[in-house]
Amino acid sequence: MRADAATSRADTFPRLLLAHAATRGAAVAMREKDLGIWQSWTWRQVADEVRNLACGLNALGFRRGENLAVIGDNRPQLYWAMAAAQSLGGVPVPLYQDAVADEMAYILDDADARFAVVEDQEQVDKLLEIKDRLPKLEVIIYDDPRGMRNYAQHFLHELAQVQALGRALHTDHPALFQREVDQGAGEDVAIMLYTSGTTGKPKGVCHTHAGLIAAAHGGCEFDRLGPGDEILSYLPMAWVGDNLFSYAQALVGGFTINCPESGDTVMTDMREIGPTYYFAPPRVFENLLTQVMIRMEDAGRFKRWLFHSFLGVARRCGADILDRKPGVPLLDRALYALGDVLVYGPLRNVLGMSRIRVAYTAGAAIGPDLFRFYRSIGLNLKQFYGSTETCAYVCLQPDGQIKYDTVGLPAPGVEVRIADGGEVLVKSTAMLEGYYKRPDDTAEVFDAAGYFRTGDAGFFDQDGHLKIIDRARDVGRLANGAVFAPNYIENKLKFFQYIKEAVAFGHDRAQACAFINIDLGAVGNWAERRGLAYAGYTDLAGKDEVYALVQECVEQVNAELAGDPMVADSQIHRFLILHKELDPDDDELTRTRKVRRGFIAEKYAVLLDALYSDRSSCHVETEVKFEDGRRGKIAADVEIRTVRVFPHAQKQVA
Fold this sequence. Notes:
Elements: H1 5-9, H2 13-24, E1 28-34, E2 37-42, H3 43-60, E3 67-71, H4 76-87, E4 91-95, H5 101-110, E5 115-118, H6 121-130, E6 139-142, E7 156-158, H7 159-172, H8 176-183, E8 189-194, E9 204-208, H9 209-223, E10 230-232, H10 240-253, E11 256-259, H11 266-273, E12 277-280, H12 282-297, H13 301-322, H14 330-350, E13 358-361, H15 368-376, E14 381-385, E15 395-396, E16 409-410, E17 415-418, E18 423-427, E19 434-435, H16 439-444, E20 452-460, E21 466-471, E22 476-477, E23 483-484, H17 486-494, E24 499-505, E25 512-518, H18 520-529, H19 537-541, H20 544-562, E26 572-577, H21 597-603, H22 605-611, E27 617-625, E28 631-642
Parallel strand pairs: 1-11, 3-4, 3-5, 5-6, 6-7, 10-11, 12-13, 13-14, 25-26
Antiparallel strand pairs: 1-2, 8-9, 9-19, 14-15, 15-16, 17-18, 18-20, 20-21, 22-23, 24-25, 26-28, 27-28
Helix pairs in contact: 2-3, 3-4, 3-7, 5-6, 9-10, 12-18, 13-14, 13-15
């Protein structure tokens, strides 16, 4: 399925919206679940809502070239706000809705935001907390009026009232909206997305309409996405993936966006909608698998036997059957068909994935075992590769050419090269226009030939598929000169349902060691079934039984690493289980849950030093931030364990 001719000629997102409204205005464009009921808007209705909001913003003084902050969960009204700003020649700047006020203050100030559209009272309260530090912020518009009755500040406006103001303006000046849309051009900046800030302060990445539309067209053509498709939009609007899939591709391909009721109802809402197109970072797929394994551990003996028996069949031939490869024995095909009736089909249904034609994962490397599991049960899961600066559009995996350790072939219209030092370089029309107010930083990320320096280390295999090793800055060497790729090791550890996060260390050291975060849900369930009482995360993480459980996982990873000459020297020698969960609010993870390895090494230096000594425990006190702004301390005696490492036949120093 493809977009029609009218949309293929549109060069800005407002024009795409109006083209859909004109050619297929009665089709459903968006849905939202509210109070347990799905509400729908057609393309014509969405265009009207956007026009009214744009005219309302214009009446309040929003002008071409200005930036509009957008903060909240995935809501149709917030997507309308983005389109309304673009219709007026403005630039939406989505922020992570779970960011604390101080983080928002930096971005709002850096983005010169004079207007902000937010979801509800919670987000309004955050902005009010920092309003005195944001002299440029003049207007705050909120969508949900619940709890806002006693807020009397003159700069606060309800979104419905702004739209009413816009309707009145449109009645008086019916040509205004179309005139503003007509002034737009493909080269105009369409959105500003802030980087996660893994190594420093976040930077505003400016993308044009033309760049994003090119990426969206390429993706839609590649996977044949069009008006019959459905997507569930539940990941942060500030993430480039959501902007590409839930906004740009939806407007190019004309498929339906579905917004869940809340983060807690995503799985239920998925089962009700049955999306045909799905994307999630690896951590979501990890969490889903953890939940499945927990449920199976609580199941009866026969169900457990049935599940694991047919998983063995799926592991053996499921991916080959999905890819329609010849050579699968007839008996395996028959067993797999039976397994699809008894296990795989019901499992996909429970996960809300029964209708999915294509599912993508990105944002971080996914462990090959996790990747293989989903494909083996019949989910057409594929990796794509990209970054905020490249519109998340660099490499895609074609159907039938899926490799578990690569990210696919260069996407249509994208050139990829490998620099002499191994860094991946990219050139395409879907590149950033630049970093906002940072010309020096913009110049630094392009080489003399105009290729973007991704910062990732990788190489092409014999079939032309790109394999990403790690972030170039993170790839190091052990003291003996062997390659040390921490992210590769961390992903292997996180495949186990009991391990939520892992941070590997080893650069310039004689051996690799690791910090581990247990998954409280999975390990808690495991402990309860064994009658093991615990008072909370810190108590559970320190128990001998839990250490033994995690040690078994670490030693399994070591056995796998021993079989690969490139990374055999990177086996984990010692590990500890952190006394607290790594948290974005404590600056240990980015908002996209990427590990800030350098920050963690500095913050927990006392633990890292103990890990590389002969000590068997270490006392630590850590300051933590609570959601209400209070601060506290967590103290614990953290055990350090030495684990088994395995011999390997061949050592390779790259």
